[in-house]
Write a structure and sequence with these properties.
mainly alpha; two-stranded antiparallel sheet; 10 helices; 3% strand; elongated; transmembrane helix
């Protein structure tokens, strides 16, 4: 059973819970999925707990009676028995985030460049990319996603829209792409303002487009999981 299938099954089981049991169990889900543990075994254990809770629910036993009064404390104990996430997975995650951010950045650069070219404007300003901008995007995207992931985790769970970037990691959704785009625009402005602090490169729009296409293909081949 794949991680995606387990998450889908978990969502289905949660819909069968009473409101009180569902709220309690979602606290467990949030704790598990934001912990640095092996994701496959984490999802397997969550399914086991969901089945246990539904069986108890049929007998009139609620989540607090079954697992204890504090969902976070129960989750902390259960997480301790799970193996830690492999180091390579963590490295892959933190390489993937700036990879995607830079891919979007170069796509936007190419788009702006082609529009400027079509309007007959000078491409001097649009073709120049500061090394400072690239560094800010790479480092800033990691910090941004870590912060946004924690803030949106609860709402994401309730909407049954799983953020598999911090989760199954390589999954993207529209909300996260919008955030990337907005932050990238801000960074482009910062990079343009302070671009002389580090070397600046001149890249034609079609080259930026080619880089973004290669970045997208690389993401699908290297990072995306089934």
């Amino acid at each position: 059973m794949t991680i995606k299938a387990m998450i889908k099954e978990n969502n289905r089981l949660r819909e069968q819970m009473t409101p009180g049991n569902k709220d309690y169990f979602e606290d467990i889900v949030v704790y598990f999925r934001t912990s640095d543990v092996d994701q496959i075994q984490s999802e397997q254990l969550l399914l086991e707990l969901a089945h246990q809770l539904l069986e108890a629910q049929e007998q009139g036993i609620n989540a607090r009676q079954l697992f204890g009064p504090n969902a976070e404390e129960y989750s902390r104990i259960k997480v301790q028995i799970l193996p830690k996430r492999k180091t390579i997975e963590g490295i892959q995650y933190y390489v993937m985030i700036p990879w995607i951010a830079l891919t979007i950045f170069f796509f936007m650069e190419s788009l702006v460049g082609f529009v400027a070219q079509w309007l007959g404007d000078s491409l001097d300003n649009f073709n120049r990319i500061s090394l400072l901008s690239l560094i800010i995007i790479a480092l800033g995207s990691v910090l941004l996603i870590e912060a946004v992931t924690k803030l949106l985790n609860r709402n994401t769970e309730r909407a049954e829209e799983e953020k598999e970037t911090r989760h199954t990691k390589p999954h993207l959704n529209l909300r996260m792409i919008v955030i990337y785009v907005v932050v990238t625009l801000i960074i482009m402005m910062i990079g343009y303002t302070f671009r002389n602090l580090l070397p600046v490169f001149t890249i034609q729009p079609w080259v930026s487009l080619l880089i973004s296409v290669m970045g997208l293909l690389g993401w699908r081949l290297i990072f995306k999981r089934k």
